[in-house]
Predict the structure.
Amino acid sequence: MGLTEVRELYIDYINQVQKLEKEKKPGDGLFGMGKKISDDPCHEAFADKLDAILKEIEASGPSSEEAADVLEYIYHAQAEYISFTSAYWIMNAVHGLTLGLIRFLDSKDAEKLCEIYDREVPRRKRFPVQKKVASALNKK
């Protein structure tokens, strides 16, 4: 378990979202009619699968470098897939699932991730969960 599994999960998730967006009818979600993409169970399934993968990584006792690679990918993903607006919110929300991996970082990797996080998730745009992640990275 590691970065490869996380990447595959993100790619599968984006493919599901892309399929939903292609199948969306023009009036879906308006006035409570039709199906909103944001209500699809794929979003919750993505978060649940990511949580399971991250817990397995934590249980394996990853090196600082392994943890940093996974965290960097997750923190960058919402920028990489920004065109998928229906996935944007969940990709930001899952940052909270990474708090357990931060403890495996050494100070050098934590500093590098702080810089990346500040660039990818500017302070003025952070959600409460992202503020927790930034705080945990800064403490490390």
Q: What stands out?
A: The radius of gyration is 16 Å. Residues 3-139 form one domain.
